[in-house]
Amino acid sequence: MQNTQLSKLLSYTLRHRPEELGLNLDAQGWVSVVDLLAALQVRDASISRGQVEEVVASNDKKRFAFSEDGQQLRASQGHSVAVELGLDPVVPPAVLYHGTATRFLASIMAEGLRPGNRQHVHLSPDRATAETVGRRHGPPAILRVAAGTMHQAGFSFYQSANGVWLTAAVPPAYLEPE
Ligand code: HQG
Known about the structure:
Removes the 2'-phosphate from RNA via an intermediate in which the phosphate is ADP-ribosylated by NAD followed by a presumed transesterification to release the RNA and generate ADP-ribose 1''-2''-cyclic phosphate (APPR>P). May function as an ADP-ribosylase. InterPro entries: Ptrans_KptA/Tpt1, RNA_2'-PTrans_C, RNA_2'-PTrans_KptA, RNA_2'-PTrans_N. Helix content is 32%, strand content 18%. The protein is of the alpha+beta class. The longest helix is centred in the N-terminal third of the chain and has 14 residues, at 3-16. The relative contact order is 0.16.
């Protein structure tokens, strides 16, 4: 299996459907590397621990992280299954960005940003990243999020291990299309 394919399989398994490989995530989203490797090798016997380590280390967005002792692996963000990542709330910068598709703008400005299938709304630290995220859905649009004002109003923000900003939802009053 190619590294890209293995990365996609890890994303799918560790964020969305661990049961398809016969795995269970713990409450914080961790899976035992020994169990994961055994399950992956049922799918494709050529997958080695070395290849998993390479995919984790070389992943363009650092989507996965090993536990400190190296015995467990989890996705850093993006889950649809309920996990408690154990992130501490942090003070966000004054402005964060959200990249979306132009066709979602009217609905977003009416309802605010909703997490959809995921556990959180994902926000980007800069416009360029937001544009890349938005382009995945079609012609992109960028929204400025008044994160500092939201935080002062009592909303909690978290930053995942790979630098993505997370919050529960963003009401329309804090959004401004660029
Ligand atoms: C939109 C990737 C209509 C929202 C990226 C987005 C990110 C609404 C789409 C991560 C809405 C959900 C997450 C509303 C939100 N009305 N549309 N009220 N509220 N939306 O993929 O943020 O490669 O679940 O704007 O880099 O695009 O997977 O979220 O367009 O970090 O590691 O609903 O996924 O990372 O789409 O992307 P998604 P996202 P990975």
